[in-house]
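Re: the request from the purification team.
They wanted to know what the chain is likely to look like in 3D before they choose a buffer screen. I agreed to run a prediction and write the result into the notebook, where they can find it.
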Amino acid sequence: MPSNNSTSRRTARRRARRSADKRIASLVTREVVKLIPQIVARVHSLSNSRTPEDVKAEPIFLYKHFKDCDPMPFTGEGGVSQLLLWFDAIEVTLRQSGCPEGFQTTCATRVFQSQALDWWTAERNKRGITATYALTWNELKKLMKDEYDPPHELQKLEDEFWQIKQDKGDNASYTARFKQLSVICPSQVDTPKKAIAKYIRGLPECVGDFVKADKPATIEEGYQLAAEVNDKRVLSKFFSTNPVKQAHQAIIIDSSGESINGSSDDSHKNSSRDSSDGSSENPSKDSSDDTSSGSLDEVSDDTASTREAQPNRKRKEPSMEEIPKPEPLRSVPILAKRAYNGSHPQCLRCTYHHPTGAGCRYCANCSKYGHLTWNCHFGPQH
């Protein structure tokens, strides 16, 4: 029995200790749960309250940071185009230098020169220094547009935009000006379709037809396509002021002194038609007769000099009645001579350029140098 009593007592003590441990554990858990929010708040407060050595000081913006970016000066000259160009350039500089919004007006107005500086000084005197420099960048832009873009200047730019055209092969200048005027006069290109159509109308036909046929969806595609086609035209010398004539073309000078383009076949047809038509009236008959008589005198002189040079040669002297009079030259087209660009020297005898070993041009009809038989206007010599 004593052994049973001792065993029961030990069992009771173990149960009592277990129950006490459970009560203590529950008390500790409740206290820890209450303390967790306080611990978390304390940790956050300690992390936010760092010492000055741990916190890096924020950089301070100075005007020299803006000046180091080489801002573009503004003089107030050049009109609206120069104003818009300055707006774009100064906005890039403000972003690169990290200029804060409250300091943008101060930095931008520091680059004013000449007329712009005089205007800004007058604005400061009128508004006050504090109110003037308190303007935002957008307010400053609006104020400058009102000053340098008056209604009459805007009307001139709108008229220019209506009539803008590309000058020969300078597509880059045309596109740049088109973009500027699109910003200044947006009412004329308020839709992509209107902008594309207006841009194509200003292009030369040899470029605009290709762009129109391609049907660009955006104006940027039209810019790129026009530049590509224009470069090909420039490389092929399409916009040359002196285009090279083809082999079948010639420049004909009519009786009035004006040059007309035509083919060599047409000119020969016209000349043969005019020479065969003897019944047509010719207002310059007297002058043509004088020319023909002068030509006869030259032929007779040349014949006489030939006879003197060859005294041993016997030939029958033709009478004046036997010498056929050539038909008067009425409206024979004169072919404009081109400048010689070859490598042969000029002959002192026939005044033509030919190889030194080759003979001069000699006419079998009139026995003269300088032209061939098919181009003779004097007739055969007997």
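For the purification team: The chain has five domains: 8-38, 63-149, 153-235, 248-268+330-338, 342-382.
Please add any questions underneath this entry.
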